[in-house]
Amino acid sequence: CIKDNASITVFGASGDLAKKKTFPALFGLFRDDLLPKNLVILGYARSKLEHDDFLKRITQYITVNSEDDKQKLEAFKQKCNYLSGAYDQPEAFETLEKRLRELEGERDVRNRMYYLALPPDVFVPVVTNLKKKCYPENGIMRVIMEKPFGHDLKSAKELQAQLDPLLTEEELYRIDHYLGKEMVKNISFLRFANPVLAHIWNKNSIANVQVTFKESIGTEGRGGYFDSSTIIRDVIQNHLIQVVTLLAMEIPSSFNSEDVRDEKVKVLKRMRVGDIKDIVLGQFTKSEDGSKPGYLDDKTVPEGSRCPTFAAIPFFIDNERWKGVPFLLKAGKALNQSKVEIRIQLKDSAAGLFDDIYRNELVIRIQPDEAVYMKVNVKYPGLRTEPILTELDLTYSRRFENMKINEAYEALLLAAFRGDQSNFVRSDELEYAWGILDPVLSWLDNDRPEPLPYTYGSRGPAALDEFMQKFGFVHHGPD
Ligand code: BG6
Question: Coiled-coil region(s) at which residues (predicted)?
Fold first, then answer.
């Protein structure tokens, strides 16, 4: 079984993602003894790298805090191998097969994971070659793929059509790393294990839902990629829409991956973008003090680009539970802070008795500093007989002080080793998610709307406040 013996080949092993996320996550699992006992790790990329340079590169982002961890890291390095080769030449995959057999033979390994941290134009050649040259004869094969899965609905379908004859859905693990984040996985527990929340989770009690992604860094150095991606493809189409499906789905009959994904798909089928006219697009300009460049100052960005680095888009889900409730998805780079959160604002209540009370809000802070808190009105402590707004606060670092929250990639890689696809994106989910955004993407391509400028380090375009008001969000205080 793959839990006991497996090789994992990381394609794109000399790249950024591999050194920042994939190898640190593999080490995290290795350190906690969660990887198969009989294990082979092989890095594969085009760059010619000496073994030591490869090890240096992949351990750059790993921190060890104890003697024990140091030893574990040495043992981990012993397991890591590197092979350089092309992505599109069958002979290179013959060499890969040979190398894998040698390494696997030593450890009696029969199952194979292939992790593709690769640009999308080589997905198909790599999988074709893997299927032809490197398919495990007596074991299981799983291919983990990183986004982007297509550029729009049409290209996503084309990509899938090319992969269909090569991989079964059970063999293909499409990563959306947000699905591995602790607080995203927590959504179903909060919703379905607590009647107090389950009962208010609908259009009768909820006024609006926001999912906000803010990053305080710009597109530094990634402008070339980002320009054709836009914030909409980069973050909203995948991470934020995935979060919405978990917030909005009906209770699945089990946590089995098909049951969960069936429910998520039902949400996507009913989800649509509101009026295109209401969408707010922004593009960052240089910071006030001039120390941070504007988006257009990036040399890799085409002159005069209208690429949105910020977007606020209203969505609706036309079903019994959610009819009329706006789901406001907002994402932006180069903002005043880095924060990802879900904010569920409840409708006004207790009218008449109090003058100054506020709406309840349930906030699930995904990062940084994981938390769930509910804004509530209480009596002002002491002799004043008036209400004050405060929070029922579950900040994880305080409440679960000694418990470790694993990195998203650790959770997802472990799930892939275990064959649990519930937090990976199924092909129909992917298609519906693209389909929902198609009207927005064609508007961007055909009308080339001009994004509103906002200063690097600001809250985003000023029009955002109006957008929020329009969809019934009532603002209370700075948070
Ligand atoms: C990636 C996007 O998918 O997610 C990046 O391509 C973004 O642009 C990143 O910065 C955010 O991930 P995280 O885990 O840092 O919130």
Answer: none
Of the candidates 172, 176, 108, which has an alpha carbon nearest to the alpha carbon of residue 146? Answer: 176
pLDDT, position 479: 47
The pTM of the full predicted model, rounded to 2 decimals, is 0.96
Ligand 1 pocket test, pick from 16, 179, 239, 409 with the greatest ligand atom count within 8 Å of Cβ, gives 239
Q: Which pLDDT score is estimated for 80?
A: 96
Q: Name the residue of 176, 235, 405 to mutate for ligand 1: max ligand atoms within 8 A of Cβ.
A: 235
Contact between 76 and 27 under an 8 Å Cβ cutoff? The reply is: yes
ipTM over 0.90: yes
C-beta of 234 in contact with ligand 1 (< 6 A): yes
Q: Which residues of the chain have pLDDT under 70?
A: 1, 350-351, 477-479
Please give the positions annotated as active site. 239
Written as six digits, the tokens of 190 are 């909060």
For residue 242, which amino acid is it?
Answer: Q
Instruction: Pick the atom of ligand 1 nearest to 178's CA.
Output: 14
Q: Is 215 in the pocket of ligand 1 (CB under 6 A)?
A: yes
226 Cα nearest atom in ligand 1? 8
Taking each helix axis as running N to C, give the angle between helix 427-447 and helix 153-163, from 0 to 180 degrees, rounded to the nearest 10: 140
Q: Are 35 and 5 in contact (CB under 8 A)?
A: no
Task: Report which ligand 1 atom has the smallest distance to the Cα of 213.
Answer: 16
Query: For residue 18, what are the CA distances in angstroms to 125, 177, 221, 477?
Result: 20, 13, 17, 41
Q: What does the alpha-carbon distance between residue 409 and residue 271 come to, in Å, rounded to a whole number?
A: 28
With contact defined as beta carbons under 8 Å apart, do 232 and 241 qualify? no
Q: Write the CB contacts of 434 (distance below 8 Å, at least 6 apart in sequence).
A: 150, 152, 153, 156, 237
| Torsional class of 472: left (φ above 0), alpha (ψ -120 to 50), beta (otherwise) | left
Strand boundaries in 46-131, DSSP class E = 80-84, 112-116
Question: Which residue, by CA, sits nearest to atom 6 of ligand 1?
Answer: 234
Q: Which amino acid residue places its CA nearest to atom 11 of ligand 1?
A: 235
Residue pLDDT, tens place only, 15-50 = 999 999 999 999 999 999 999 999 999 999 999 999
Query: What gap in Å lies between CA 218 and CA 216, rounded to an integer?
Result: 7
264-289 residues labelled b (16+ CB within 10 A) or e (exposed): bbbbbebbebbeeebbbbbbbbbbee
Residue 445 makes CB contacts below 8 A (sequence gap 6+) with none
- Please tell me the distance between residue 428's alpha carbon and the centre of ligand 1 in angstroms: 23
